[in-house]
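Structural prep section.
Before we set up the soaks we want a predicted structure of the protein with flavin-adenine dinucleotide in place, mainly to decide which crystallisation condition to try first. Input record follows.
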Amino acid sequence: MKVGIIGAGLAGLAAGLELADRGHEVEVLERRPWAGGATYSFLDDETGDEVDNGQHLFMECTTAYRAFLERLGTLHLTYRQERLRVPVFDADGRRSDLWSSNLPLGLHLAPALLRYRHLSWRQKIEIARAFLALRLLQVHERGRLEQITFEQWLRERKQSPDTIREFWDFLVIPTLNCRAGEASASQSIFVLEEGFQKDPRAAALAVPAAGLSKLHVEPAIRAIEERGGTVSMRTAIECIQVEEGRVAGLVLGDGERRGFDACVSALAPWRLLPLLPEQVRVDRPFVDLTRFEPAPILNLHLWFDRPVLDLHCASFIRSEVQWAFNRSRLGGEDETQRQRLVLSISAPGDLFALSQEQVCERVLPQLRRALPASREATLVRYRVTKEPEATFVPAPGLFRPGPRTPLPNFFLAGSYTDTGWPATMESAVRSGLAAAAAVDASSA
Ligand SMILES: Cc1cc2nc3c(=O)[nH]c(=O)nc-3n(C[C@H](O)[C@H](O)[C@H](O)COP(=O)(O)OP(=O)(O)OC[C@H]3O[C@@H](n4cnc5c(N)ncnc54)[C@H](O)[C@@H]3O)c2cc1C
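Run finished without errors. Recording the tokens verbatim:
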């Protein structure tokens, strides 16, 4: 079959590769001059360093994304922990780690929690109680989790506001890009179960050691092209034409219309909706897409004249810094003369509207306070990358569609679709594979 895929983000690339592998003629159409969507890298004009649009992190339990890298032959370009270990610094630079021990599942986090100095005993008892409630969660309770926020669920489990802020938000913000008060209980609990309740190694962290374009974007394009497919940049779809209950063609900016046997939308929901004819938009599942809201992420890239962080990465509590990644160490560079850090700030709130200078002025002093080694170091360069549509807000009551639609030759992919996972690379890859399987099945 001739298949048109709209959007060359991870979902579109994963769908494209899978379909090309299954023998279909694939054309991926991308609006921007580059591919990768929410995941790409570019060269910093001053240093020549490869800079990501935003730091990405994945975990051992994200099996589809890991398998995708293996398929592309680039898994070795990542730094992967054997077991979870997160160094956590408080605002004044006191360090205490969270880690996964060798104890059996269920107890594997207990030693870390017992020794964790950033929380009081009262908070630790509250947390242990909530983890126990998670383990005992009954099937009949799960339906309700879709309709309430995680904060509501936590309050019902007697979690106090400071425990929610200093522990649960600490987990939820970087994984869901919103606070416990905005995320649905089901999405939050999904992440906790995948990360902490299935396998003691599941939450081990993995970080790209190369730029995202080198890691998966360029290799995926090459792999699609080697299988006879094409990936065209600067090819924005302006309109999806529907005639007699099927997609009849994709209309480009210059009015050109391209016809395909099947089409896959690998767009964010708020990008897809305006391309559809009004009479189609009112039908399910398209009408449900109006409820998806984009959420931003901000990254502050810092170049210091000396080492300031003797770790691959670190996280921060009671600070706006959240997470710091030592790009120099991850990239295997000499760190003695300079060190490049990336601070990743999810759910950035009012920081997002500030200028680069204002962001640096506000965040850098917090980093210097929390990382004593950075106090003496000179900041040689900085830049801010902002992604206004980084993820969707996993709010209660969202309906996430599967790959099939009422239009028999039109399929959905994208991290927002019904993969179970939040807006992640894992979800994007899973969605691409699911859409490809659905297209393939429709040709049988
Ligand atoms: C800064 C940042 C940090 C993140 N951190 C993490 C992390 O640590 N771990 C993790 O797993 N995930 C993270 N994510 C989320 C993850 O990157 C996304 O969930 C995932 O990449 C989304 O992929 P997608 O293919 O579904 O959508 P997208 O990447 O949005 O792809 C959609 C593509 O469609 C194109 N397009 C739009 N309109 C048109 C049109 N009309 N015609 C043609 N093409 C069009 C877009 O240009 C884009 O290339 C992060 C995202 C950002 C931005």
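Observations: Residues 101-196 form one domain.
Flagged for discussion at group meeting.
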